[in-house]
Amino acid sequence: MNMDWTHLLRNWLWQDRPQTGWPPDHLLHPKRFEAAPRMAALALLACVLFSGPIAFAGEQPLAKLRPVPFTEVKIQDSFWAPRRETNRLASIPFSLQKLEEAGNLEDMRLAGRGATNGFRGPVFMDSDLYKALEAASYSLATHPDPALEKQLDDIISLMAAAQQPDGYLNSYFTIKEPGKRWTNLRDWHELYCAGHMFEAAAAHYQATGKKTFLNIATRYADYIDSVFGPAPKRLGYPGHPEIELALIKLWRATGNQRYFEVARFFVENRGRKFFATEHQTPLDKYDGSYWQDDVPIYDHQNIKGHAVRAAYLMSGVTEVASQTGDERLLKMLDRVWRNTTERNEYITGGIGPSAHNEGFTVDYDLPNQSAYQETCATIALAQWAHRLALLYGDAQYADVLERALYNGMLSGVSQDGTKFFYVNPLESAGTHHRSPWFGCACCPPNVTRTLAALGGYAYAASADSLYVNLYIQGAAQAKVGDTAVALKVTTDYPWDGKVALTLTPASRAKFALRLRVPGWCHNASVAVNRRAVKVAIVERGYLVLDREWNRGDQVELDLPMPVQRVAADPHVKADQGLLAIQRGPIVYCLEQCDQAEPLASLWLPVEAELKAAREPRLLGSVVTITGQARIASEQKWRRSLYQPAAPVSRVALKAIPYYAWDNRQPGAMKVWLPVSPPLLPARGLEAQAKVTVSFANDNCQPQGINDGLEPASSGEQPAALCHWWPHKGTGEWAQYTWKTPVQVSGARVYWFDDSGRGECRLPASWRIEYLDGRDWKPVTTTEAYPVAKDKWCAVRFAPVKTTALRLVVQLPPNFAAGVHEWKVDGGDDGQ
Ligand SMILES: [Zn+2]
User: From the CB of residue 87, how many other CB atoms can be counted at a distance below 10 Å?
Assistant: First the structure.
């Protein structure tokens, strides 16, 4: 039977909503959603709750809400509070220790001593230190800790010593390249590092009231202001945006309007192709899209380039546009936001599918196993979403914020708080794991600062409204107009959608309480002082309770949380014929250790019942989803390529929250599940082999050689790559070892070649050897070993029975080599 999945899924989703739940807006069919991203969710709510027109972002008046600062928010729940405690007690001290081991702190000491050598690490080492200081400062604000405060004071003295007389502060340039300040804004991250310093300084001031750090930051910002700006000052802007949003924070912390003006200058001049001038690139050969420098900032039609840069930039643009009201910027933001969330966002709330540019490719390119989805990019999207949520007071933005925080951000750190993901795939063969630290350590402190300041994302206020964006048990102190309002929240969110709120205004006051109805939710209901609100108003995704409030008034909100199946937009090739499981804001995955059968063999029929149950002892207490999956035997899978109706048997399936994967024994994982027998790619003998290599440095991932990911070209940059760099011109090998002897008769290699950006080239030559007793012997073949780019290089040989095979490689003179994939063909049928 020939099924048209796109057709089937669409009909199923539209016709069978109550059973299936509600897929997130942006994952649905774009024709319905291009015009109104949130309309369908609201249309459904309308039956129960809604009356009133829907306005679209871009046509909306600017709400310009004030966030309720994290210092005024108490988090006292069973979900975030333990994680924040782990963050405070484990992750933050651990990252400060790692910064010592990796050299970030020593670099600052050396700069303070006026050293001229000894700098360690990449050019942006200071930024990771600043992010960790920011996290530690937030933590101090909610949990005073004299020892940590002293540690910060000591680091701040190091920075004060390293600051140059004119205010400049960057350990790399002070130690290593003193004559090269501001000579490569595109690649050398000076302004990026400065930005993270300003964010950290503002956080430290907010947390401690001390100006020690803030004074260092303002001296540096004053110096930057003296260098960059309209003529006669210099044109320029950062290759890695971040300083724009940071200068806004510094402006808010100090009230110095100059900082806002510098941010505005960086934003409004971006796209003048400054990097082409800086690098003497002829304009007809310049593609600035990686740095969002290909067109004037006003003219962007879509999200592009490096994902973290793009989303940090858009955060800064949102801040500037919020102040200036610039229509052109607001329209650009609206276009790019919709392109991002409707065509380029993962269900886990992350962005940037490609390892090649750590960023975007083309619309709807959202692969799962090779998903890059850098932790920082998810955080950057959350930050942008938060700023738009404040700008417009529209719940669609807070929906994206929630999705990112509960899924792609939280997956970035292990349960014990000491291991981190840089790359967050949505499917793994079992070879992807968190690491304690990274040579490029941007992600770990980004997670720690986000967790430490989490309360700041939950509430916002205006002159006449109090907004609740995140439902977290605890308390908050807000100001609505001139009225101080204390809020107490009781809930077991995200596991249960019942939320009880008690409002205590300083005195009787009239204002609107606006409760976000999440995009995934329908049939929301609300009661005030135990009386159901029959005709509730929903505006911009918020349920509005506009009334006079008395001390102790009680609101009970019910957001039903059935298990939902979510279909991706049919344009997303990687997810065709697949569904994901979601419950409330939590996206689920299957991990091999919970399944009795190989994950690759499981499929979940659309009619299979799914049940949710709390497992208090699992992964820090989670709700798991269970049901009956189907499985076909391995032989049957293979046959199922030709006979989709092959007989099947049932097997129990268990799904856990995506954020919690890779905290138990290593194994396969996937988010998107087939709804019919999976058409398995024919994996060869390599899939069962153990990989060893003659040499591997830190950034080599030998497991990439048999992960089954076939590249589109040799130049593609996979997340995991087996290579021998920085060895050059030497003889090297990769080895497959099997537990029991296998018969082999052929091999295929897809070579890696990063000409133009790296030092890997096609090998000078290669051959296959097998283990015969204790000796390595070449296989017997009459064929030549081909060496070519962008295709499989295959060789067949006389069958041998062995427990180990070697791919022996002669690296070319002055270059290294790498392998995307090495397949081994069996001896009997060539499979
Ligand atoms: Zn990162």
Answer: 25
Q: Does 797 score more than 90 pLDDT?
A: yes
Q: What is the mean pLDDT of residues 321-329?
A: 97
CA 571-574-576 angle, to 5 degrees, is 65
Task: Quote the CA–CA distance of 22 and 14 in Å, as a whole number.
Answer: 10
Residues forming the active site: 358, 442
Quote the strand ranges of 149-283, DSSP E. none
- The pair of structure tokens assigned to 558 is 């019910």
Kindly report, residue by residue over 463-517, the tens digit of the pLDDT.
999 999 999 999 999 999 999 999 999 999 999 999 999 999 999 999 999 999 9
Tell me how far the alpha carbon of residue 376 lies from the centroid of ligand 1, in angstroms.
Answer: 4
Cα 200 to ligand 1 centroid, rounded to whole Å? 17
CA of 101 to the centre of ligand 1 (A): 19
- What strand order describes the sheet that includes 66-67? 66-67, 459-461, 465-468, 509-516, 542-549, 537-539
Instruction: DSSP for 523-553, please give it.
Output: S-EEEETTEE-SS-EEETTEEEEEEEE-TTE
585-to-100, 378, 564, 568, 784 alpha-carbon distances in Å: 37, 15, 10, 16, 56
Q: What is the DSSP letter of 574?
A: G
Protein residues with C-beta less than 5 angstroms from the ion ligand 1: 374, 376, 442-443
Distance in Å, CA 446 to ligand 1 centroid: 7
Place of tokens 């430490």: 452
Q: How far apart are CA 193 and CA 176, in angstroms?
A: 16
pLDDT digits (tens, 9 = 90+) for 536-559: 899 999 999 999 999 999 999 999
What does each C-alpha distance from 558 to 80, 561, 658, 746 come to in angstroms?
20, 9, 24, 61
CA of 708 to the centre of ligand 1 (A): 26
Yes or no: say if 195 and 243 are a contact pair by the CB < 8 Å rule.
yes
User: 375 CA distance to ligand 1 centroid (A)?
Assistant: 6
